[in-house]
Amino acid sequence: MKEFSRSETMEWHVTGLDCASCAARIRTALERLPGTGGIEIALMDERLRLHLAPDLTPPARIEEAVRALGFGIARTGPAPQAAPRRALGPRGRLVLVSGAVLAAGWVFALAAPGPLVPWVFALACLIALLPVARRAVAALRAGLPFTIEMLMTLAATGALVIGETAEAAVVVFLFAVGELLEGIAANRARDGIRALARLTPATALLEHGDHVHEVGADSLRPGQILRLRPGDRLAVDGEIVEGVSGLDESAVTGESLPVTRGPGAVVIAGSINTEALLRIRVTRAAADSTLARIARMIAEAEAARAPTERFIDRFARWYMPAIVAAAVLVAIVPPLAMGGVWGEWVYRALALLLIGCPCALVISVPAAIAAALSSGARRGLLLKGGAVVEALAGVTHVALDKTGTLTPGRAQITDLRPAPGVEADSLLALAAAAETGSSHPLARAIRAEASARGLALPAARDARVRPGAGVEARIGGALIRLGQPTHSAAAGTLEEEGKTVVELTRAGQSLGLIALRDEPRPEAAEALRQIAALGLRPVMLTGDNPRAAGAIAAGLGIAARAGLKPADKLAEIRALAGAGGVVMLGDGINDAPALKAASVGVAMGGGTDVALETADAAILRDRLTDLPAMIRLSRAAMRNIRQNVAIALGLKAVFLVTSVTGLTGLWMAVLADTGATVLVTANAMRLLAMDPRRKA
Ligand SMILES: Nc1ncnc2c1ncn2[C@@H]1O[C@H](COP(=O)(O)OP(=O)(O)OP(=O)(O)O)[C@@H](O)[C@H]1O
Ligand SMILES: [Zn+2]
């Protein structure tokens, strides 16, 4: 037996993905080739990605297969490509010509009815039908007999044969117009996503000695110093080295109120400097900027298909053959068995064929999902795909991390309780020295207070973090530990006031307590009210002590589980996930495993890479109310999808009946299909206008 072939991930840029069924068609054709797998097609981003074993199927064969289906294809690099804006295009011109001939046909028919008129209509029909038929044949050769184009071609040819030339022409013309409209809608949605990437300028002012050069953003490297004038947009992520100014970060966070930032502050690409000149050190190359990664993420998210979408694709696969079979029966059975008139029943069968077009149904899910994703993205609510939207709409529990999530993670020292014979300042200095290696909010608070008091810190060696428990270090030869207090009455009273208490020990001997308090975010109570209004039960998870956690939870009116070690948090999340679905909101810093275990993990704050890359969704502004907003958006998207499916199937059902009974003819059948597609797309576009932050 042959050894398993190594497979590689490859990526292409595919053009002409205008119709809803295009992606499904490419997928089906490529699945047939040996050695292909993990096929992802992002309609909005026009990208095709798959795993390929090149010795089984060379990449050129993939390109051939896609071209045979009538699409353009080229290998891409990792950077998203901006496709040239298309004007009317050859397809559009053909529709115009066919429409003109069709109009001429009507003029003839009215002004000079005669034997020539049907030929004019036939010509109009053929002009628009030819490219459709070509694609139908290409798909047929790729092993896909049941395509929309095939249905169209059969119906139109049939109509020509039975002499209904005017109808044949109108039907094909309407179909072509519908396709054009679909293409325009798809392009508009694409533009929405590309707009994100366009929010960073192509150039920047690079400092070089005492003068500046304008250089391409792509050439910038970390460490270089840029100048950002008032009114300019930043091309890359960076850090302010000089100057204080207001920055409008709406490109990433959707928050248009400028925030004041000074030296040391992180500035993200796409931000606009609103006040004063800034000198900024580049921290990331343009291609890795937060905004670029978000744009890439959304594009990839689109390929992560919702379960509903997969179901509808499967449905469409048997729906079309079933309709064709039904049409054949309608054409044959009544004339043979009941003495019906052949022409009449063939005509009804042709109308039925057109009803078989599943466009509106197939586009109903991706249109709504794409609209919801870009609507969210513009407001700093990132959802990584249809599967996440669907899961988020269905969660029953909400778990929130305490530190850094419900609270901003900016604890302040409230009490210093040195043991008898210990100076308050030396307690603080020892604690700050022990915290050297920790980035925990408590560590930051302790170090900040020590430096505010101008304390000189003793030298610490072997400083290390004991995750979920505290820190330790060797100072002056003794082992210093800082962390959760071992039973002390003093600690208990402080904790009942909602404070986190840590105890400092030297060689096992207590040197005193430090109490800190991290106030809940100002909007926390409102966010929890909104979550409750959605019918969800929020619960706070924390590693902090039960008394402090209980005091804070009581103030906010939320259930709390405290004293959780990281593994306990994970177990809590798993239990909730099993009980119907849980969304977990965390800061993504030390709760990544819990975020992963949740049905939907939402990371707060776009700053950290972990948050963006490991969570299912992210909230880019530090605003808790954005979580209920995100849930509202997901629910609205799922509602929209249900409406779309109802519109699509409802119209089909009505016209199925009216076609078979002969109430409506061919062109009504096509109009119903095009109409449904336009309705469904328009309905999905409503999501773009929706502001999920506003309460329903
Ligand atoms: N760097 C540190 N310095 C002092 N004490 C610490 C430190 N890190 C953790 N601790 C102690 O361990 C406890 C649990 O910490 P952990 O990081 O698990 O949770 P947390 O950050 O307090 O809360 P949350 O789980 O809500 O994020 C803290 O309440 C504190 O008592
Ligand atoms: Zn259609």
UniProtKB/TrEMBL annotation:
Gene3D superfamilies: 3.30.70.100, Calcium-transporting ATPase, cytoplasmic domain N (3.40.1110.10), Calcium-transporting ATPase, cytoplasmic transduction domain A (2.70.150.10), HAD superfamily/HAD-like (3.40.50.1000). The keyword Membrane applies. It catalyses: Zn(2+)(in) + ATP + H2O = Zn(2+)(out) + ADP + phosphate + H(+). One of its GO terms (cellular component) is plasma membrane. Its EC number is 7.2.2.12. The keyword Phosphoprotein applies. Coiled coil: none annotated. This is P-type Zn(2+) transporter. The gene is cadA.
